[in-house]
Amino acid sequence: MKKRKTPIDILPDDVLSSVFLMVLDELGETARPHPSVRMSHVCRHWRQLALGTPLLWSYVDVQPPNYPALLKYRGHWRALKSGSGQIYNIHRVEVATWRRALEAYTARVLTWLSRSGVSPLTVKFVARDPHGFGTMKIPIPGEAEGCYETLTDILGQTTRRWKEASFSVDMAPWTASIRILSTVEGADFPLLEKLELDIGIDRGMEQGSFKFHELGVLKAPNLKSLSIPRVCYGINDLPIQWDTMTELEFGPPPGANERELLSHRFTSLDALEVLRRCGNGILTKVRFNFQSYHMGGWESDHIPAGANARGDKVLLSRLESVTLQNPPSPLALAAFVDVPSLRRLCILGGGLAGPADSERSCAYDWISTFGATLEDVTLDSASLTQTCLQECLEKMRNVVKLSIRCHNEPSEEHWGWQPHGAILTKEMLLRLTPKATPNSGAVISASTETTELYCPNLQYFSVTLGAGPSGFKEEDLAWFVAGRRRSLHVAPLKRVDCRFVGAPKVNVRRVLEILKVDMTGCELNVSYIAPTVE
Q: Would 140 be classed as within a structural domain?
């Protein structure tokens, strides 16, 4: 009996290949098992077609097996070095197993690259330090150093096809395995547009064979997006073509001690230098992580007045998105730049100058300067005073998406006692709520007639309440949603996310049903967390 063909069986190969690529795009390259592998195991025809479609194999995710754990042998280094004994024999069996696994993994990478043909590649290389070689001062076996060189040499043969590359290496011995980044000239990365280097290396390690500031990959002629979340040297040392950058990310080395942070942390002056070098260029997105604290408390890291002796501002005409994590207070960076196209602002963490110093807040600094153009704002209220938060809301007339992360309870951390930040109060929520009209069907007015509405274009609203008493209740949220959905003079809400502390007291959805609020096209998510118990 002849097998009946399904509709997908009669599709032309070029159409079916396009379907494969659509499936890959929908499921994502990080899905496991990989979508390309799954599609190549359906039938003989699909396998032949999948193996003959190079774009299905253009994402190369290299995460080799880790060297066998040595932490459990701490205190037995002499036994390991002796070359005999039970502990030595157990470890050698583990090493032999690891070597076989590494060889098999290397063969799979070779097969994957062969299937990619000549298509542009997205390369991801991850070498973690799960055993504490760096932090626990564990001796590094000679066979472990450079253990991934074969893998990276294989990748090095394909550098002319790299379009995006990400290297995440936790510690110095593994950096010997990625010398390809420094030994290959920038011209050998002709297609590279996006690069992420998350490499755990400090000044002392740079004295070895791996010179971070001499990386040839940083000189790639078409590089547009660069992320170095663990920068530990001067910005001036980086051989980057700043005027071609569209996206940049810089931050400090994680886990750095007080002396390291003071010697080579990423500072506000570094941030200003980056923006100056990109001035009048095509930069559209920046992310800076400052880590400007030390053991005695938050350290002042503002830009001195003399840094702008000429009085001119850095023009960044295409910059649309700015993210500042752990910014010092005060920062004053906004006073040195002109960003007419700024649309998205995200400020997370940071120190609080004091209840009477709202103008010294980093968030207030940026919103007071660029609030009229902002459309997407995320704020961490831990660095805001009540006055500052209220003034920020008042200035964001065109914001469409607003997210406020509230931390209502002070916390004592190892660097000292930090004052708690602002909370979104009931009064502020009322100022975000349109007043009721006679035809709205509302029973009471949710706002006074004499008060100007905050954020009239708001469509996406998210507030995450921290530990401690919340500034408003469920019924206040219900009136806010009702007012925004009913008013004809403001943009209708499309999504609301709110997290309360404690057990539910009022069903917000039920209240909206009683008020007969049309929620079509609006997603409401209300969640609760248990209060902190000391």
A: no
